[in-house]
Amino acid sequence: MTTLHKIELTCPICFNTFDSQAVLSTNTFGGKATDFHERASGTQPLPYLIHTCPSCGYTGNEHEFGDGADPSPTIKDHILVFGELAPKLPAGPLAGSDKYEFAATIADWQGREPRRIAELLLRAAWCCVDEDDVEAERYFRRKAAWAFEEGLASYDGVDSGERAVLTYLVGELWRRAGDVKTARAWFDRVPGEVTDTHAQQWLVDAAKQQRDHPREWFG
Ligand SMILES: [Zn+2]
Questions:
Q1: Is residue 116 over pLDDT 90?
Q2: CA gap 151, 122 in Å, rounded
Q3: What's the 29 CA to ligand 1 centre distance in angstroms?
Q4: Rg over CA atoms, the chain
Q5: Is the separation of the CB atoms in 173 and 144 below 8 Å?
Q6: 104 - beta bridge partners?
Q7: CA distances from 104 to 27, 41, 59, 112, 143 (A)
Q8: How far is the CA of 10 from the centre of ligand 1 (A)?
Q9: How far is the CA of 46 from the centre of ligand 1 (A)?
Q10: pLDDT tens, residue by residue, 159-191
């Protein structure tokens, strides 16, 4: 079981104090999807790993709301001076995908590497699976794929040992976004990105499998 508990946070941007739900414990008994989405049995923990200030939209993990949190002036300008997130806050409860989209926007303002932004967009897509929002899921999968591609295209944007796994992932993101042709092109690049033939053989096999006879789950 995933268990949640209530925490109280103070926003380091607007100093609003609010309650949020955080993960006390979780599990990975729900299997692993072929886009590396690890599932818990019971409640999925992802939406509760980050928190959003309901007043200004600032979003981060518990640490980023902690005593030492000191968001850069750039972030403060975007959120407080220009008020760019607050108008996007939904009237009802915030979905996990909303929170990760905000986190990705803030990471972009911070000038974080494309692959880090890509990971947040991927998490937004994973949340959409549980939100039963196929259109938004595909939207975030495309955005994540583009951001991973940007990381792979930039000089030292991705460690050489990680290039094969991220190339596979871009293929899988396009496959799940419904673009089979682009997916195939990325799966076909995986063997050329392998740096350790023995340790990464599973990736070559997985890319071939997802290209020819795709599966939704590993194992
Ligand atoms: Zn705030």
A1: yes
A2: 14
A3: 35
A4: 18
A5: yes
A6: none
A7: 25, 27, 9, 9, 10
A8: 8
A9: 21
A10: 999 999 999 999 999 999 999 999 999 999 999
| Average pLDDT of span 103-120 | 97
How far is Cα 57 from Cα 74, in angstroms, rounded to an integer? 15
Q: How far apart are CA 179 and CA 170, in angstroms?
A: 11
Is pLDDT above 90 for 111?
yes
Helix/strand/coil (H/E/C) assignment for every residue in the chain = CCEEEEEEEECCCCCCEEEEEEEEECCCCCCEECCCCECCCCCCCHHHCCEECCCCCCEECHHHHCCCCCCCHHHHHHHHHCCCCHHHCCCCCCCHHHHHHHHHHHHHHCCCCHHHHHHHHHHHHHHHHHCCCHHHHHHHHHHHHHHHHHHHHCCCCCCHHHHHHHHHHHHHHHHHCCCHHHHHHHHHHHHHHCCCCCCCHHHHHHHHHHHHCCCCECC
Determine the distance separating the centroid of ligand 1 and the alpha carbon of 88, expressed in angstroms: 13
Q: What does the alpha-carbon distance between residue 109 and residue 203 come to, in Å, rounded to a whole number? A: 33
> Band of the pLDDT at 93, cuts 50, 70, 90?
confident
Tokens of 186: 């990325």
* Cα gap 38→141, rounded to integer Å: 16
